[in-house]
User: Fold these one by one.
Assistant:
Number 1:
Amino acid sequence: MKTASREEIFSMNLSLATGVLMLALKWAAYFITGSAAAFSDALETVVHVAAVMFAAYSLRVVYRPPDSNHHFGHDKIAYFSSGAEGVLVMGAGLVIIYEAVQHWLSGIHLQEIGTGVAFLLAAASINAVLGIYLVRQGRLKQSVILSANGKHVLSDVWTSAGAVGGLALAWWTGLTFFDPLVAILSALYILREGSQIVHHAVEGLMDTSNPKLEALASTALTNFCAEELLTYHRLRLRESGTRIYIDFHLQFPNGVPIEEAHAQATRAERLVAQALPQTADITSHLESVHAPEHDEE
């Protein structure tokens, strides 16, 4: 049974441990400064830690083999994980906007700005390194879970940078409204990032086509058919987390023995699989080139 790789488990554990460290740094910055921007950054990190915990569980489920209730495996939990993370991010953005407005209306009192900025800069630097690492691992492992987590971490870098900018402007100009203003701008950015994560998750759950993968599969199949003097139609492809599912109809001249046709179809499946960047489950349907056409529903 295939399981999450050592690198994937290490990456997720590293993300969780770093998230806990970020919680300490960012909440310390908020309590020291009383900054709305620092609060927005700290709250986003709470959401991040919750999302990482769900993602860590999903990473262990996604590799479970098919069973009597899940004939195609458990790959799609990756999209549920990604979608849940996006929803949590968007929820944090809305709370941040509410708290920033309340902070603005009730009066702004900042203190110990230099210490708070130092904590936030340290957090942003650590998250930048972690985010780049997670996105890279997600691409290498074709992991939706790691990629979504890495993008979330990188969005956290921008909220930290915004908090630092708001505090610096407030300190430099003496205009404290820059603090809640930057918090609101950071929240709008968070809402945008969260919506993009949710959108990608919905595309996966709805089996939205991937033109790049379809082009790779179609090219491999077209080349095979040109070599073997065959034709094909009804090529279909969908992604499901770590795996791609493909099916197509391969057409043979009348009278070709079933053994020969099956051997050629198996070779076609193998060549298509080799042309794709991740594991593919491929099914071919054998039919006569002169067979009555079927409705392609």
Number 2:
Amino acid sequence: MKKTFSVRTMAEVAIFAALGYVLDFLAGAYSAPVFINGGSIGIAMVCIYIVAYRRGFFPALLVGLIMGLLDIADGFYTIVDSWYKAFAQVALDYWIAYPLVAFAGLFKGMFDRANDRKHRILAIVYGCSLGGILKYIAHILSGVLFWADYFDRDFLNIANPYLYSISYNGLYMIPCMVISGIIVIFIAMKYPRFLSEPDTYSLRVAGRQKGDK
């Protein structure tokens, strides 16, 4: 039986989680003057996407969870006055948001089975879109449930909390999704082995070579 968490997989989880945290930290540093209520335009999700296509859903989920916990360890901000509301807010902003990106791993099978560029790109587009949208939804919910009374209304001049949260979070989440997806597609086209487990990649290459004969 194939092991989901081998020593090599755990090493990759640790490496990509650390890299993702650094990328997220840097994005937060240069985005802070623009996104005054939090959020940043960065490529930290790429680290989760790579593990999702290379190792699958659960290893990628662990990468996202570690990234969220590292963010909390570095410092977090709560705006509610009860422990259970604070727990829910921190969960949506940290514990849940990044792990949701791992749902891109649901398309690992489609990616591994693809024998042409078109279907590999589709697998990436579907997975990156799903993971990114789920993270986007988590931030929208956090904005509506906890941040609605604290938004700077003059920033977007939108009074409705739902529209404000959708618009504000979309300003950074949509670019994040697009840029991260393009990077993963580039990796898949130029360095396909990087997104596949060694055995899977070898079998796919052999299958294509056999089909060419």
Number 3:
Amino acid sequence: MSTQTTRPQLSYLADQMNELKQKGTHFKLRVLEDAQAPECTVDGKHVINLASNNYLGLTTHPKLREAAVAAIKKFGVGSGAVRTVSGTMTIHMELEEKIARFKNTEACVVFQSGFAANAGTVSAILGKDDFIISDELNHASIIDGARLSRAKIKVFRHKDTAHAEELLKEVAGEPGHKLIITDGVFSMDGDIGPLPALCDLAEKYGAIMMVDDAHSSGVLGRNGRGTIDHHKVHGRVDVQVGTLSKAIGALGGYVCGSKDLIDFLYHRARPFLFSTSHPPSVAATCIAAFDVLEQEPERMDQLWANTRFFKKELGLLGFNIGGISTPASETPITPIVIGEGRLTMEFSRELFNEGVFVPGIAFPTVAEGKARLRTIMTATHTQDQLTKALEVLKKVGTRMGIIK
């Protein structure tokens, strides 16, 4: 039996958790008991899974499984060190070279997570005399990286490029570097960043242009090359961040750009310098995933067919799926905006009881009054699964008075 209990010094943490319980937004982790798939077992219950970032279904792809097993047999289960000591294996270099070619850039560096890639890069390339022009709905990893950099942060209204230009004008005469940064796809609303207009501003004001493409890798652009390819702004984005944890089906993040940028990050990005490198099985899995993106474009086609069907049917049921008080989704991420946190969490629990898994998201992940369920389509959902999920959403939503 554990003897560890909360001592008085940490009692304030329990007090804050009690506040969340009173608001109805406290949660317990749901535990997945089998593979990440469209139907799975969560907390002992068989459910249709609408909560996964596994856009292309690659977490269980046989080619990725085979690559992982082969890498373990050849290289072992771990790398044993950070990249700058003895933890850079040939397979790590192969992965970085493959991603750079895929993204049409000179070079790439892989980080242990997408969060580390964003936070580590922003904090490495900027300092206290510099300026960051950031979209108000950018991911938390961008926000944390900006704070760690100690640069002066100026936030523009969501996708409001005129406001971004106003902020750039304010600092145009100031010494220091300027960085414009945006998500490629915004993770809570599913809308796409205005890259062409922001690239224009970066060129006009001599700013660095950075895009976090986590939710568009494998989803937008040719064979899933992301928003840079989708918007045809190759060569105009200085720093491209992506993830290996979502559509790629494994784990990690990466930064693509010029050879000078990547060499600098090798020397100065703290998450890279102070974290043990990926297990070889993970690197091998990611290499195989990029092969699948090139060889099986039908997966993206099916992802978008499922997205169009589900988004249309959700809207017809009368749910608020964005475009009213929140941006309209343009991707497989489709929010069901409820507003009030307690009701959102109750809706999620009732759906789970009826066999549909889609967690509630409330403050501070989203703004107060904009709590929602975030549904995500994958290529491997079947029509029957989606139809059944829609029936449950209609039944529970009507019963709870969320729709009529």
Number 4:
Amino acid sequence: MKTKRFTGPAAGSQKYDLLTALAVAGLSGSPGFQTSMLRLVALVTARYNWARDELTVGQREMARMWSVDERTVKREIKRLTTAKILLQLRPGVRGRVAAYRLNIDEIHRLSAPVWDRVGPDFSDRMAKAQPEPEAPLPKVVHVAFGQSAGGSEGQGARAEPWGRVLARLAELEPNLHRNWFGGLTCLEDTGGVLRLRAPSAFVAQYVQTHHLRLVLGTAQLEFPGLRRIEIEA
């Protein structure tokens, strides 16, 4: 699916509709789900960065906002990420606050059965606002000359935990994954440095210049102690 961005003249009403969808989905669920959605709506309303499409709030601030302790915050964030309502972009390491993104596709899926309870105008707007399916792109085959047919590309790209990193990137940024990240393979992880191989020097340079922060933050979820990523062709 194409990632939904809230930009343009109608962005304000689209954000209100999304918050309404979260609220009515919560109200139709169990008491625990109602509490989770109320907390999320308060958090998004107060602290979501729509320009960057991410949420970066410390656990202490969340606890104060929700009138709970930090252990409850950890459990709540775990529930929201496990349900894939929130997608984690970067972990909270070395004093840095963790970053999350709303999973618009999942919010639409959860709330769709109760759109009509708000009204037909709301149902119509939400149906039109659903992310459009992506048009298929031509398949690009990268040939690594000098490698045998059973080389490390197929194994390295999907080997754990790098395979989980690729899966997260595909979920967070499907277009970027298809065009830039999918061809990256893991060479080694040592001393807090993750070495990757790109299918070409151009891809290596482009990812390092434009998307290294995203790849590093996502990889830190699977590689504890990771400090740096090096990409070679």
